[in-house]
Each structure stands twice: as structure tokens, then as C-alpha cells.
Amino acid sequence: MLTFLLATLAAITDTTVYAGVEGRIHVPIPRLEAQAAIDGVLDEPVWSRAARLTGFSQYHPVDGRPAAQQTEILVWYSPTALHFGVRAEARPGTVRATLANRDRLGEEDRVEFYIGTYNDGHQALMFGVNPLGVQQDGTLAEQGTGGSGREGTDLSPDFVYQSKGRLTPRGFEVEIRIPFKTLRYQSVDPQDWGLHVIRRVQSSGHEDSWVAARRTGSTFLGQSGTLAGLTELHRGLVMDVNPVVTARAVGAPSPSTVGAWDYDGAAELGGNLRWGVTPNLTLNGTFNPDFSQVEADASQIVSDPRRALFFPEKRPFFLEGIEQFSTPNRLVYSRRIVAPVAATKLTGKVGGTTVATMLALDGKEISRTGGDNPFFAVGRVLRDLGGGSRAGLVFTNRSEPGFANQVAGADALLSLGGEVAVSAQGAAAVTTRDGATEVAPLWLLDVTRSGRHFRLNARFEGVSDRFLAGAGFISQPDAVQWGIGPSYTLYGAQGAFVERATFGTRFQQRWIYDDFVSGRSNLDRQIFLTGNVAFKGGWGLNWFSWFERFGYDHRIYRSYALERHGPGGVVDTLTPYPGGPTVRNEGLTLALSTPWVGPLSADLSVTWGNDVNYEEWSPARILFVESSFQFRPTAQLRAEGTYLLTSYKRRSDFSTVSVTHIPRLRIEYQVSPAIFLRVVGEYRSAHRDDLRDDGRTEDPILILDPSDGVYKRGLALATESDGLRADFLFSFQPTPGTVFFAGYGGQYRDTGRFRFAGLDRSSDGFFLKASYLFRM
Questions:
Q1: CA 766 → CA 182, 552, 733, distances in Å?
Q2: Helix/strand/coil (H, E, C) string of 92-148?
């Protein structure tokens, strides 16, 4: 009995243990003049002096429940680096960990550290590791869309840090060292940092959190714990010099010699510079940068021509501090800067204000004249208001001779009572073309009330048809939309087959911008019924059903006309296209996701029902399929496949309007943590029928040829496109910034859908890239 009492007393008085379930999340982190070998073995004496973070609880799919397996995090810092140790228990044979490529840990056990070095409750750097120490990193800048879990992390940025892990009989251990050179942080001394720790348990599909965070909170980072009292942090000189050498050769069939190929090659020298002016301000510069991508963007299918396709940023220079340029509507989109000659930016935080500025001179080839360099200037400031609230300003400029576009905007996020968040944004664009100037607005108001069971969201937004974001991305311009949607969540008992189920509905209306401001009726009305169920073991089921009334959108058919035939041949050409009546739609999407079953996991989404045939503005029957699988037979080999199908059939006679198939296969072999080989093959088959005025006059459709201003039948005739794209890559990347890539990519035309026997190479290219990170 005495021994038990002494042990209990020792546990109570142990001030180095911080249990999240008990609310002990304010951690006076120890500063130790010591070093530790990053070998995945927590055996150095320094680890016994670290603060111990314990008491994890479940965060996903149901928050607040005890974690099924124990996790202990050790944390301390030296004058030059922050150190984490992980001890995680797991049942034998349940840990999923492979020698994956960086950031490819989506289907593996892992531990993620969200470090808010500015302690502002809305932005953090994420450092993640799997049980073997493979790294995953990125940034999280919350936009106030919480209330049903944390927002998505941008995994594009890469940071320099060390990690090593190993499997143990009881689970796994990992060591992590994050140099202060890698971080930006406050200039005060001492200072506090925010900290969240999330553990993903792949075998159950659960996420455990050190902080007993609520999924219904208006913010995830605002619920962070605290690493308190960091002092005397030594970064030294923060100067990264990153020279880059690239060489490429692009080939195409020779126009003069049958069977011959012509290649156009070039080699270039460029470089990047990163200077930590102060602990909280970083200056980046680049000259003649290499912005080549080692893997082409995956193909996407346009299902609604009124919406633009978005492709994420992948280029290293723009990824530094990318989270500090974020706005509710994406008014800053760095991929608008296509081929910069040179660029510079300054990012960081001064007091309670985030500051981000960027200047860039783009290539002549993307200018209006082909002979001028477009100039970009971007500025963003964001002020903390306390309690998770903040307000910001943004300004962007794109200009060249004869053209200028400036956008200025303000936005705010107000967190009210922890479960209510109000996000608002307003902006104006001033565009001058050849002496004529237009001014146009954009606005957004979003109100979300989140509770453990009941959630309500209301949103009102509008973008003028004349609003141009020359340095931004607007998904759906020339539209006004409002919507309201309640949802309700039920929770199963602990251990039940159904862990969580959410049911919701949403009603929304959409106008063409001029119709809204003129008081005319709306274009579209939509009612959605949604649901998702999380099952025991990591299975998931989602459904989405719609009931819509879509009005004729004349903007899509400005280049359309009809060819009218009479006894004497062509009688008349009608311009503009007369269009048709309202189209009523209804349909259903079912999506199933599986956990890992041996070396396999899969996702399948099937959509069917009635939608709009946008090619002819008439009712259509649709079938969409999105499927994917992952196969990992060993710790080094992985295969990932996806298949997309879209099929539109006319409701009038069930003939096919269009059908597209896109299968994609990606195979990687990880030779070592720094070396991998990759092969990507993507086949695209697209067929479109002859276009006609379906269900009305049945007359053939003509389309305006912009090259000569003539309406032509040929542009509306049936088309068939079948081809294969193949990419091969050898990669050596021991650390971010130090890389060697060698790759080949080729395009091949097929003689018919999936015939393959007649593949004809239409273009190809070789590239080499070598860079080295000098960290001073």
C-alpha cells in the first residue's frame, strides 16, 4: 500500500507530464544545452528531462472519447533547434508504414505537429512523420470554414528538418529535430508557441489529439496547446543560396522529312535566395528560375463550363510563405505568373500583423503583344483581433503597355463564442484596356454556427461580370449566389458499427450578375440532400442528391448559331442561338471509401441521374465514375490508379452526346529515403457527337470561328481524341532544395479508344534538373 501511495504521489507531483485530457496543455518547455542523435532511438539522457505530453483523446470521427492506444510525446529545445520524440503503442501487425516519398503519407500511420510560431491561433507550420521517419510537411492557414473538423493542410511547401523512426515490439518510436533556421517566429523574448499534435491510426481510421479539441469549434488552431517560455533562440545567419541548372529538349515530328524528329534544346542557370532578415521576416529572391514541374498536372474534366479549373501551386519559390497570401476568395494566385524573369518577396509578421509582399516580372511570351514583360505587385496584411478574430487588406497589380488591372480588398473573420464564425470580404477591381477603364465589385458573407449535433451555414456572395483578378483565381465569375444549409450529426456508442452519421440539406439560388442588380429573376434553384457515415474500422459512405431547376445561360452560347435547311438548301443562319427552356435535374452520388485490406485500399464514387447537356443546352442523362486504388505489396513499391468517366446521353432519344475516359496509373519504387523511380501513364479518350438543337428544331449547330469571324458547321461536327501520356522520372532528393531529376515525357496518339496497337508518338521531351541548397 505504501508503495502504491508513493507511486501515486510521484505521478501527481511530476510536473513534466502534461495530459491533454486533463486540460494540462500549457507546457513550460525545458531549454537544455544538449544534443541528441537523430536515430529513432530515444535512449540519450536528455530525453528523460523533456516535457512529456500524454493523455490523447479521439478527434476523428468522434471527438472527446479516450484514445484506444497510448501516445507519448517528448519535447524540449536546445539553443538552435526544437526536438520531439514519439513513443506510440500499437497492436502487433497493425502499424502501416512504408519507405514512402516525401508528403506521400496519406494512407499511413503518422504523427503531425502543428506549430504556431506566431501563436495567433490561425496559421501554423505542419511537420509530420510516419513510423519510419519519412517526412510530410506543409502549412495551415485557416479561413474560418471550420465547424466540422480542421481545414485542409497545404502540403506543397517543403522544410528542412531531420527525422528518423523505427518499429518496436510495442509500436514505434520517432525522433525529430527542427532547426530554428527553418522557422519564422516572433522577435520577442521570451515567447509562446501554439502546438497541436495529431496521431493518425490507419488500422482504425481514427485520429487522436493531444489537446481535447472539439470538431465543432469555429477554429482548430485556436484550440492549440502552448509551448511556453521559449527564450534565447539562436538561428545564426539564415541565408540559403540555391543555384539551379536545368536542361531540356522538346521534340516533334519533322515537317520536312518523313519519320524524322526535330528537337529544340536549351540549358539554363538560375537560382533562389532566402535571407532571414529577422526571426519574423524573410526575404526571398529568384532570378531566371526553373519552374518546371517534375510531374504534369493530372487531367480534370469540365462538368460545368461556367466554372474554371483550379490547379495547385507546385513551384518552390512561390511556396515559401504561401499561407500568408491566402484570402477567403483567392485574390492571390501565383500561377498567374507564368514564366517570371525575376521575382522577390518579403513575408513575415510584425507585432500582431502578418505582412506579405511580392514583386515579379513575367516573361514576354505571355504578354498581350508578345514583346512586353507583364509586371506583378502583390501586398497582403492581416491583423490579429484576439480570440481567433482577424481583419486583413489585400492589393494586387498586373500591368503592361495598354493594360492594367488593380484589385483592392478587405476581409475579416470574427469568432463569436467559439461556435459561431462570421467571414466577410469585399473587393473592387479596376481594369484599364487601351484607355478604357472599368470598376467592378466582389463580395462575400459567410456565417457558420457549429454545435456537436446541429450545424447551420449561410452564405451570400457575388462577383461582377467585369471583375477581373489579374493576379488571382475566381472559380465562377459573373454570378451572385446565396445558400443556407442545416445539418445534424448523430454518434454511435463507443465500439458501435456506426461511429458517426451526418445528414444535411441545402437550398441555394444563383443569378447572372446583371440580372441580380437589375432585379430580374434567378437563373438556377437547387436543393441538395447530403449525408455521410463513418463506420467502424475506417469504412466511409457519402451520398449527395440534387433537385435543380437550371435556366438557359445565354453567356455560354454567344458563339452558337443554327443552320436552317429548306427545299433549296440552306435557307437561313440564326444568330444568336435561340437556346431552350428551363432544364430540371435530379440525381444521386454514392461514394464508398475503404480502409486498408492487406496491401489494398480503394475509393469509388458513382453519380447518375439527370443533368444539363451543356454542349446543346438540353436535358441529359449522366453517368460519372471516379475510382481509385492503392496497392503497396512492399515497403518500397507502391502503385496508385485512378479512373474517371463522364457520359452524357440525350434524354430525347438516348443517343450519346459525349463520353470521356481517363485512366491513370502511377508506379513508384523507393530505392532509399532519398532516391526513387516513378512511371506515370495517363490515357485520355474523349468523343463528342455532331451537335444539334436537341429536342427543339433538331437543326445542326454552327460555331463561330474566332480566327475569321465565320460561323462553321465543321466546328460542331463529331470529334474523337484518343491518346496516351507517359512520364518517367529518376529523383535524388536528400533534402529540400538539393535535388537531381532526370525525366522523359511523351505524348502518343491512338487510332481508336484503347486500341494501343497503333500508338503514334506526337511529341516528347527530356529534362534534367540539378540544384544544391547552400545553408549558411
A1: 33, 47, 19
A2: CCCCCCCCCCCCCCCCCCEEEEEEECCCCCCEEEEEEECCCCCEEEEEEECCCCCCC
Q: Give the number of C-alpha atoms closer than 13 A to the C-alpha of residue 102, restricted to the C-beta side.
A: 22
pLDDT of residue 377: 97
pLDDT tens digits, one per residue of 492-546: 998 899 999 999 999 999 999 999 999 999 999 999 999 999 999 899 999 999 9
Query: What does DSSP assign to residue 11?
Result: H
The yes-or-no verdict on residue 336 having pLDDT over 80 is yes
Bigger pLDDT: 94 or 217? 94
Amino acid 1: pLDDT? 41
- pLDDT over 70 at 145, yes or no: no
The three grid cell numbers given for residue 621, joined into one nine-digit string: 442523362
d(CA 638, CA 634): 7
Grid cell listed for 270: 538560375
Residues 123 and 120: their CA atoms lie apart, in Å, by 7
- The CA distance from 467 to 472, in Å, is 11
Question: Cβ distance 676 to 670 under 8 Å?
Answer: yes
pLDDT tens readout for residues 434-488: 889 999 999 999 999 988 899 999 999 999 999 999 999 998 899 999 999 999 9
DSSP assignments along 511-562, one per residue? E-HHHHHTTPPPSEEEEEEEEEEEETTS-EEEEEEEEEEE---GGGGTTEEE
Q: Write the DSSP assignment of 232-246 as a string of letters.
A: -------EEEEEEEE
C-alpha cell of residue 37: 542523435
Grid cell listed for 566: 429548306
Give Rg (Cα) of the chain: 28
Q: What is the four-CA torsion angle of 165, 167, 169, 174, rounded to 10 degrees? A: 20
739 membership: H or E segment, kind and range: strand 738-749
Tell me the three state secondary structure of residue 22: helix
Asked if the bond preceding 576 is cis, omega within 30° of 0, the reply is yes
When pLDDT is averaged across residues 149-171 and rounded to a whole number, the result is: 91
- Is 648:125 a contact under the CB 8 Å cutoff? no
Q: How many CB atoms lie within 10 A of CB 657?
A: 23
The Cα 379–Cα 344 span in angstroms is 12
Residue 207: alpha-carbon gap to chain centroid: 20
d(CA 279, CA 274): 13
Q: What SS3 state is found at 15? A: coil
Instruction: State yes or no: pLDDT of 292 exceeds 70.
Output: no
- Terminal C-alpha separation, the chain: 59
Q: Which helix (H) or strand (E) holds 51?
A: strand 51-54
Give the span between the Cα atoms of 182 and 194, in whole angstroms: 17
**Spatial separation of the C-alpha atoms in residues 767 and 743, rounded to whole Å:** 5
In sequence order, the 6+-apart residues with CB closer than 8 A to the CB of 765 are 248, 249, 250, 251, 744, 745, 746
pLDDT digits (tens, 9 = 90+) for 191-205: 999 999 999 999 888
Cell of 344: 522577390
Which of the 8 DSSP states describes residue 478? S
Q: Which residues is 113 bridged to in the sheet?
A: 127, 197
Q: How far is CA 638 from CA 331, 745, 765, in A?
A: 37, 20, 25
